[in-house]
Amino acid sequence: MIIHNAEFICSNTSYLKCPDERIPEYAFIGRSNVGKSSLINSLVNKKGMAKTSSTPGKTQLINHFLVNKEFNPWHLVDLPGYGYAKTSKTNLVKWEKLINDYLLNRKNLLCVFVLIDIRHEPQKIDLEFLEWLGENALSFVIVFTKSDKLTKNKVNQHVKVYKEYLQKDWEEIPQSFVTSAENNLGMEELLNFIETNNQLIPS
Questions:
Q1: I need a labelling partner for 93 at 20 to 30 A (CA). Which of 64, 69, 129, 154 fits?
Q2: C-alpha closest to that of 99 among 65, 47, 57
Q3: How far apart are CA 199 and CA 3, in angstroms?
């Protein structure tokens, strides 16, 4: 897939306020500070489209971006991160409801891209979120981020450990991609995945 253009559309506090449901949609989510904004900017080749920050929890709304407006358009959705963030428990509960309501009710959502930092061992909070997606029959893939921070051998080792961990509870291991926003690794594969899914939608 070639990215012709990408632009911010809107931010919302509820899935009920989100834009036109006829356009296929892909949501990006991960633990706070996983490198989500950097990956989104790298994916659409537009520096600064999704705002990056050194402070976890910057994304607090459902953010919609329209990609390839004139030709086979699709929505890229930047969701608040789960896990640690410097905010109140009240806000964390509010964000959790915001995310859950969106994921469970957005009819044109084709897939959830769950971002996981490749540098770390399997984290309980990530595994619980993957399990929740599976229990609710939501389509998702795993996107390992920050692979440039490790050697290729270490990356392969960490992916292997993660897959072995998932095999304990999953009959079928979810599809995964290894990426780096620094050197654009995996971006073509992600875009090809999106393009393939878009083609499956009846015209």
A1: 64
A2: 57
A3: 16
| Residue 183, CA distances (Å) to 17, 54, 143 in order | 35, 20, 15
Assigned CATH class of 6-199: alpha beta
Domain ranges of the chain: 6-199
Query: Strand, helix or coil at 119?
Result: coil
Check if the beta carbon of residue 62 is closer than 8 Å to that of residue 12: yes
CA distance 93 to 54: 22
Task: Give the C-alpha distances (Å, rounded to integers) separating 198 from 6, 25, 116, 170, 180.
Answer: 17, 9, 24, 27, 24
| Spatial distance between the Cα atoms of 44 and 50, rounded to a whole number of angstroms | 10
Joined together, the tokens standing for residue 18 give 């989100």
How far is the C-alpha of 102 from the C-alpha of 80, rounded, in Å? 11
What is the full per-residue pLDDT of the chain (203 aa) written as tens digits?
Answer: 889 999 999 999 898 999 978 899 999 999 878 999 999 999 998 877 776 544 444 457 899 999 999 888 999 999 988 764 554 455 556 768 889 999 999 999 999 999 999 999 999 999 999 999 999 999 999 999 999 999 999 999 999 999 999 998 898 999 999 999 999 999 999 999 999 999 877 65
**Bridge pairing between strands 109-117 and 25-30:** parallel
Q: Is the dihedral of CA 156, 158, 163, 168 positive or negative?
A: positive
